Amino acid sequence: MGFDFDFALSTIPTIIGAIGTTLLATVLSCLGASVLGFTFEMIRRGGGATGLAVRFLIDFIRSTPVLAWLYFLYFVLPFYGIRLGAVTVGILGLSLYYSGYLAEVFKAGIDAIPKGQQEAARALSLTRRDTVVFVIAPQMLRNIAAPLGNYLVSILKATPYLAILAVPEMLGRAFDIASETYRYAEPLTVAGILFLALALLISYGVKRIEQRLLAAGRR
Amino acid sequence: MLAETSHPVAAVQLIPHVRIDGLNKWFAALQVLKNIDLSVRPGVRIVVCGPSGSGKSTLIRCINGLEPFQKGTIQLDGIALGRNARDTATARRLTGMVFQSFNLFPHLTVLANCTLALRRVLLKPAREAEEIAMQHLTAVRIPEKAQAFPAQLSGGQQQRVAIARALCLNPRIMLFDEPTSALDPEMIKEVLDVMIALAGSGVTMVCVTHEMGFAREVADEIVFMDEGRIVEHASSRDFFSRAAHPRARLFLDTILSH
User: Fold this and answer.
1) Residue B118 class from Cβ within 10 Å (0-12 exposed, 13-18 middle, 19+ buried)?
2) DSSP readout, A71-90?
3) Minimal Cα–Cα distance from B161 to chain A, Å?
4) Which of A119, A126, A217 lies nearest to residue B106, judging by beta carbons?
C-alpha cells in the first residue's frame, strides 16, 4: 500500500477546515500566555510574599507536563462545579503552561535593560506603570523578539494536544480520517505540511517584526 | 537688620532649596555617607568633588530619592524626602537629573525622550509638549537632531539631549552626576558650554564633577568629600586659594598639576 497522492489531496479540504480552530487556539493561547507570563513576571519582580508565591507557581508550571494541565482542567475542574468547553480548557491550559516559560523569557529581556533606564524614568517622575509601558516593555520586546517568536511557534505546535479533549484541530481531524480509512500516511503528512507552512509563516512574521524593532534606534 | 531680613522676599530667598541634616547612609555594613549637613540656597551653584569612592555620587542620588538613606533628613523646599511615597514624589518633581551615562531611552527619538515626561507627568497635549521640548533642544543647540535616535548621536550630543530632557520638567534644582566623565575629551567642552549657559540662567545646580576648570568658572561654592564626609565646604574662591583640609589640598595639587 503506497502513498496515494490523490487520496492525500482529497483529505486537504477536511483538514484545512480545522485550520480555524488551530489558529484560534494558537492566537488566543499566545495572547493568554503572554499576558499571564508578563503579569507573573511583574509580580515576581515586585518581591514580597506574593512575589515568592508567584516564583513557586512559575516553577511549578514549568515542572509539570502540559498534558497533566489539560487533563486536570478538563476532568478535575467539573468536580468543583467548573464546567468549561473543550476549546476553552485547551486555550486555558496552553496559556497557563506557556505563561511559565514566557515569564522566564520576559525576565531575561528585562534583566538585559541597563539599570540606568529605570533610574532615568524615576528621575523624570514617571509612574511605575508608565515606566513599564513606555520604557521597560518596548526595550524588553526588542531584547526578546527571537525567543518570544520561538515560543509562539511552540504554542502552534502544541495545539494538537487539544485533540485529547476532542477539540477539532488539524492533527485531530487528520487522525479522524485515518481512523475511518485505515490510511495514516496521507492525512498525517498533509497535517504535517500544513503545520510546517504555518510555523514558517509565523517565523517569517516574527523575523520581520524583530528587524523593525531593531532598526528603531539600535544601541 | 531685623526689619530687612523679615521682609517676605528676603525671607523666601533665605529658605534653602535643598536642606540636608545629619545624613547617614550605609550599603549593608559599609557606611558611605557620614553626618552630611548641606544647604543649597536658591540660585546657588555647588560643585561637589573629591576622590572616587568618597560618596559624592551617592549624595547627589540621595537628593532626588534614587538612593534610600538610613538616618538624617533631606528636604527640598521644605518637603521631606524618603519619609513617605507622596512627599518623595512631590520633592523629586522639583529636581532634574543628568547621569554620567546619559540614560536616554534608546527606543525613542530625541524629541520623544524629551516629551515623554511632559506628556505623562505634566499631562501636556502632544503639540505643546513638542514645543516645550524643541525650546530646550534649541537651548542645548541640538534642535536639528529631534527626529534622530540616541544611538545616532555622539556622546556629547546625547548628554546635551539628556540635559534638555531634564530641563523640560522645569526643575528648580538641577543635579549633575559626573556629566562629562563618560565622554571623549573633545566632547567635554560642548557639554560644559551648555552647563555654563544653564548656570547663567539662575537655576540652582548641584554638580558632581572632576572638571575643576568648570568649577572655578561656574561654582559659587565647592564641597569637597572624602570617605563619606564633607571635609571642606567653602566659596569657590576660598577653596581654590586656600583649601584648609590636607586631603583637599592634595586633591587640588594632583588635579591642577595636569
Assistant:
1) buried
2) HIIIIIGGGGT----HHHHH
3) 13
4) A217
Residue stretches of chain A with pLDDT short of 50: 219
Tell me whether residue A57 is exposed, middle or buried, using C-beta atoms within 10 angstroms of its C-beta: 0 to 12, 13 to 18, 19 or more.
Answer: middle
Domain chopping of chain B, boundaries: 105-170
Query: CA A68 to CA A62: how far, in whole Å?
Result: 12
Does the distance separating the beta carbons of B104 and A120 come in below 8 Å?
yes
- Residue corresponding to grid cell 523575523: A207
Burial (CB count <10 Å: 0-12, 13-18, 19+), residue A88: middle
- Residue pair A78/A88 in contact (Cβ under 8 Å)? The answer is no
Is residue B131 within 8 A of residue B115, CB to CB? The reply is no
* The residue count for chain B: 258
**One-letter identity of residue B53:** G
Chain B neighbors of A116, CB-CB under 8 A: 99, 101, 103
Is the CB of B106 less than 8 angstroms away from the CB of A134? no
pLDDT > 60? residue B167: yes
User: What Å distances lie between residue B163 and A120, A135, B98, B104, B208, CA to CA?
Assistant: 12, 18, 6, 10, 15
Q: What is the pTM of this model?
A: 0.87
Nearest-angstrom CA–CA distance, B178 and B206 = 11
Q: Which fold has domain A5-215?
A: MetI-like fold (1.10.3720)
Bridge-based pairing of strands B30-40 and B18-27 is antiparallel
Smallest Cα distance from B108 to chain A, Å: 7
Residue B58 has pLDDT above 60, yes or no: yes
For residue B39, the cross-strand partners are: B19
B100-121: per-residue pLDDT in tens? 999 999 999 999 999 999 999 9
How far is residue B38's CA from residue B12's CA, in Å, rounded to a whole number? 18
Instruction: Provide the 3-class DSSP secondary structure of residue A184.
Output: coil
Would you give the DSSP letter of residue B182? T
> What's the complex ipTM?
0.90
In this complex, is the C-beta atom of A111 within 8 Å of any C-beta atom belonging to chain B?
no
